[in-house]
């Protein structure tokens, strides 16, 4: 089976990507490479951060490296939290603190539109081989609903649905999320990719 390293220590991300690629790829992440230091995400866009991670990690390991940078963009907040989604409430912010800050920032705000955006980059030996993007539009609610998912999932209702990502469940989320949509392009690219002789 072909191998793919995901440049993350976030087991939730790895699980989602693995579920989508499971039939063709053995997916691992940086938890199996404790010797590799974390890559500082100094970019101002999802593409810059995903590229930084993919290139740096692919210089340290053999084979293909997939990196993803993703987050929530809220229109009423001028696109925030955006690239700072995982650390919205501070560097040591966690999901609960980030969600609480988002609810506070939107207090009294009638416009609740936003989207989850995901940019993925594949690199090998320090060279970018491809990049793609996926997004899902929706709205942000002002109270937690659902036990599943992670991040902002309990506050985000995707277009065409009445429940949050946290309520809809992993299987359905994996068919329509921003990450799933980016992964469609990744899957298509991987299906045509030939290892150099």
SSE blueprint and pairings:
Blueprint: E1 2-6, H1 11-21, E2 25-29, H2 46-58, E3 64-74, H3 95-105, E4 113-124, E5 127-140, E6 156-158, H4 165-168, H5 170-176, H6 178-192
Parallel strand pairs: 1-2, 1-3
Antiparallel strand pairs: 3-4, 4-5, 5-6
Helix pairs in contact: 1-6, 5-6
Radius of gyration from CA coordinates: 17 Å
What is the CATH topology assignment?
A: Maf protein
How do the SSEs run, as a string of H and E?
Answer: EHEHEHEEEHHH
What integer is the average pLDDT? 93
**Number of contiguous helices:** 6
Largest sheet, strands/sense/barrel: 6 strands, mixed
**Roughly what fraction of the amino acids lie in strands?**
25-35%
Structure write-up:
With 197 residues, this protein is of the alpha/beta class. The chain has a single domain, classed as Alpha-Beta Complex (Maf protein). The protein contains six helices and six strands; from the N terminus they run E-H-E-H-E-H-E-E-E-H-H-H. Strands 2-1-3-4-5-6 form a six-stranded mixed beta sheet. Helix 1 links the parallel strand 1 and strand 2. Helix 1 crosses helix 6 and helix 5 crosses helix 6.
Q: What's the gist of this structure?
A:
By secondary structure, the protein is of the alpha/beta class. The chain is 31% helix and 25% strand.
